Amino acid sequence: MFFPRRQFFRNLLAATVLALALPAFADSDFVAVKPAQPTDNPAKIEVLEFFSYGCPHCADFNGPLSAWAAKLPADVQFRRVPITFNRAPWANVARLYYAIEATGDLEKLDTKIFHAIHEQRVNLFDEKSIFEWIAKQGVDAKKFSDAYNGFSIQSKVKRGDQMLAAYANSLPRDVGERFGVPAVFVDGKFLVTARAPAEMLAVIDKAIAKARAERGKK
Fold it and tell me: What is the CATH number of domain 6-216?
């Protein structure tokens, strides 16, 4: 079974995932991930964000997070993974993310997509609307279409949901059943539990320092 806590997803859908924000936990700035999850590059401290273009909280966090990520120290790697919560519209924008990454247009269009969806109210959740919008952005239409419809990108989207499930199952049950996006994990070991963007960035830095100290002891 893909995700053992099916009720978790049903609850998220019933509450409208678009309104979810990462809850605040009073007892700690971050929650331990046990067992720790593998990272993309073990030589680096990984900061991993699960997000969706459809999430308004992700849109609010994107600017501050991007500015923060532009100043990473040499031993830290930032990684983003779009997730779907088993929703077809979110699967479409996850494919959009990977497609513009493949065409080399991610830096140019990433913020524009958040702006189009959440400020201009452009419907980018169905394929027809996505392709019409992309055609107006100066992107090579064939290159984008080949990427968007390619098997490799569909596999990446599926893998993103599997990663989210693995992380959720490695958290305390009450936390794993409640967290939404944006969700930030550090070094495969810590879930950041702050809510406001500035607080999240401060806690990410704190978790990085903790991960760095733990690596130094080995």
Answer: 3.40.30.10
